[in-house]
Design goal:
The chain is built from 16 helices and 18 strands. By secondary structure, it is α/β, with parallel strands linked by helices. The chain has three domains: 9-210, P-loop containing nucleotide triphosphate hydrolases (Rossmann fold, 3-Layer(aba) Sandwich), CATH 3.40.50; 217-371, 3-Layer(aba) Sandwich (Rossmann fold), CATH 3.40.50; 388-461, Alpha-Beta Plaits (2-Layer Sandwich). Strand 12, helix 13 (326-333) and strand 13 form a beta-alpha-beta unit. Helix 2 (32-42) runs parallel beside helix 3 (57-67). The two termini are 42 Å apart. One of its GO terms (molecular function) is RNA helicase activity. Its EC number is 3.6.4.13.
Length: 462
């Protein structure tokens, strides 16, 4: 479905308040998954949908949940389960923007990896919408802090990954706390037998929607690079030097390889960071933030850790290892070439991985072009650097700091132009600001010497 043929959101029976939220997100016409799933969702039907990352599924289930919401009733009326904290925060942010035109809607993101006390305090007055991870939701239910008896809409987002992470029993336990009559929506990038069994157990006569993944879109150039297993790291560096993507995610099959590959790329001069499940939650969040604000141009990640990655214009994906199954391949490369942009997907393939690659080509129903590349030697020249550098300020919302305060300090006493200042993220106890790389030393020195909102805070360059 191209944009010319895509129906407008105004053709749906949505109130003006929600259409204003659609406008706030910059949406004009519906994506295929939205056009197929929103009519049955708005009719109140249960739904099981196969849709790749970046297809617009959050707006699809979000509009359905918010459409059924009664802001005047103080109770939790919608629950969204996500596999990771990063994805939950991403979904929560999108739902808040969708609800921006509806007064008095309270939304809480409840995830593990952060202190429990503030979340307990936030539940003193029940939020209308809860987005969270299964473990923390069960913990709050066990303490009697969260009541789900008034839920009208229950969503499992990226259900396949939640099952991969071992959350099936927790999901089923949570489902027992939700009214049987509530609407249930299951979204998954893949449809293995375990997902079908879960859908059969939890959903009532669901409508089924399937949207082809971005792997079939001509906007993604897919290529296989034949490599010697002993030379993979220098060959990866050479590939990145050849294609010079502005932003790139490199996927490794094994968590233990992530740090090694990121370290190798850093040795060659790339601004590369690692992301995997063994990292502390704060470090994972900081890494994702730096990648999103363009302070890092290569992210080396495991599949699970990258689930919360929210980059709409990712230039390239590299499979450092051939994925173990075609579904994982489709999900990985679906992160590039979004919203009509061109994307690049490169897969390093050793002789031992040819069978896996053939299975992927069978799924695609075509042979992919093969390339060879000369390995990088020594420390190559002209390695592209990230456009920005991140400064961390040890103060945040708890200090009543706002993005405007940081921008004012940088463009005032620090003497930077507005164009040199990138994304500003203010979190509960810390703030992060991206600065054009050439101006970052000046900004760091001036912030350390000066004040933000009349106070001195510790500032560090990352």
């Amino acid at each position: 479905m191209d944009n010319a043929a895509a129906p407008a959101f105004s053709t749906l029976p949505l109130p003006d308040a929600l259409l204003r939220g659609v406008d706030a997100l910059g949406y004009t016409a519906m994506t295929p998954v939205q056009a197929l799933s929103l009519p049955p969702i708005l009719e109140g039907r249960d739904l099981i949908a196969q849709a790749p990352t970046g297809s617009g599924k959050t707006a699809a289930f979000g509009l359905g949940l918010l459409h059924r919401l009664d802001p005047g009733r103080v109770s939790t009326q919608a629950l969204v389960l996500c596999p990771t904290r990063e994805l939950a925060e991403q979904v929560g942010g999108q739902l808040r923007r969708l609800a921006s035109g509806v007064p008095n809607v309270k939304l809480s993101v409840l995830c593990g990896g952060i202190p429990l006390a503030p979340q307990l305090a936030s539940l003193a007055h029940a939020p209308h919408v809860v987005v969270g991870t299964p473990g923390r939701i069960l913990e709050l239910l066990g303490q009697g802090a969260l009541e789900l008896g008034g839920v009208r809409g229950f969503v499992l987002d990226e259900a396949d990954r939640m099952l991969d992470m071992g959350f099936e029993d927790q999901i089923r336990d949570i489902a027992r706390h939700v009214p049987r009559a509530c609407q249930r929506l299951l979204f998954s990038a893949t449809f293995p037998d375990a997902i079908r069994a879960l859908g059969k157990a939890m959903l009532r006569d669901p409508a089924e929607v399937s949207v082809q993944g971005a792997a079939h879109a001509p906007a993604i150039e897919q290529r296989i690079v034949d490599v010697d297993p002993a030379r993979k790291a220098p060959l990866l560096a050479a590939l990145l030097l050849e294609h010079r993507p502005e932003s790139c995610v490199v996927f490794c099959n094994m968590r233990r390889d992530v740090d090694e590959v990121a370290g190798s790329l850093a040795h060659y001069g790339f601004d590369a960071l690692a992301l995997h499940g063994d990292m502390e939650q704060r470090d994972r969040s900081e890494t994702l933030l730096r990648f999103a604000n363009r302070s890092c141009n290569v992210l080396v990640a495991s599949d699970v850790a990258a689930r919360g990655l929210d980059i709409d214009d990712l230039a390239a994906v590299v499979n450092y290892d051939v994925p173990s199954d075609p579904d994982t391949y489709l999900h990985r490369i679906g992160r590039t070439g979004r919203a009509g942009r061109e994307g690049l997907a490169l897969t390093l393939c050793t002789p031992q991985e040819l069978k896996r690659m053939e299975a992927i080509e069978d799924r695609l129903q075509r042979m992919l072009p093969r390339d060879r590349v000369q390995a990088a030697e020594g420390r190559p020249k002209g390695v592209p650097r990230a456009a920005m550098q991140t400064l961390r300020i040890d103060a945040g919302k708890g200090d009543k700091l706002r993005p405007g305060d940081i921008l004012g300090a940088l463009t005032g006493d620090a003497g930077l132009s507005v164009k040199a200042v990138g994304k500003i993220d203010v979190l509960p106890t810390r703030s992060y600001v991206a600065i054009a790389r050439a101006q970052a030393p000046q900004a760091l020195a001036r912030l350390r010497e000066g004040k933000v909102k009349g106070r001195r805070f510790r500032v560090a360059a990352l």
